[in-house]
Amino acid sequence: MRIFIMDRTFLWSYQGFCYILLMVGVLPSIGSECNGDSCRDVITMPLLDDMKATLKADLDVTNMNNHLKAYIEQQIQKGVETAMTDVMRQLIDNKLEMVNATIETTILAELERYGITYIRWGRKGCPGGAELVYTGQAGGNHYNHNGGGANYLCLPNDPENGEPQSYGNPQLYGAEYEIFDRNPRGMSSILGNREVPCAVCHRKRRSSVITIPGRKTCYKDWNTEYYGYLMACHNRYKRTDYACIDVNAEQFDNKSASDEDGALFYPIRTSCGSLRCPPYKADADVFCVVCTK
Questions:
Q1: Closest C-alpha among 264, 287, 284 to residue 178
Q2: Is 125 helix (H, G, I), strand (E, B) or coil?
Q3: Scanning 64, 81, 235, 273, which has its CA 20 to 30 A from the CA of 54?
Q4: How far apart are CA 51 and CA 55, in angstroms?
Q5: How far apart are CA 221 and CA 227, in angstroms?
Q6: How far apart are CA 39 and CA 30, in angstroms?
Q7: Collapsing DSSP states into helix, strand and coil, what is residue 251?
């Protein structure tokens, strides 16, 4: 029988096929068949049947050529798509890694620039990991003054002093512990009438700081800087702010205790009534804790 090839362009696709036929002893030949003005290419192959008789058949490889062409195109397309997909995936992965590394580096660098500050009352230094801005002496207004400032100050040990003046308005005094026999548990009674140190601390990579009265531990997800006892001036004197004095308070220097007064730190006590007890206890020391986040 005869089948015909309509497209010469893809005849090369069958060279491999013909090569296989040559290997098994079949010698094909390529020719043309014309019917009027219409000519078609054919492949003629001798066949050897079981009777050892030589047969001759003309095979139409047009359909085979079309299938082979489609298969080759499909495989090429798959190969290109797979290669491009792998390349693009690798490029995207590499780019994402670079972007993530850049973002992380930028964030860490920015975090190093920011932080919070707080005063550690009763100590000359800062907790581990916090940077000491300066150390100094606690001070404030005299406990018996009717007017003026009410807050405690952490005064640096290296002041830049102004000029002396003739008019009077003294308000800046050193601060003393007033604990003696009423010292909170864990604090030494020898601190009575001794001056109070302080330290200004800076904690990097934190954005918030709070002092929590009535607790010695921070809430979940907050970090403890230090804890101690809440103190202020005595209720018989002028009002002051409250301050959280470190449980491991120390004295400012080695000077002997002397009652020089000035700003005073008394431990405070609870008073039940408007303050609900429980959960609070009557006449109890009041813990405090400084927390950062």
A1: 264
A2: coil
A3: 64
A4: 10
A5: 17
A6: 13
A7: coil
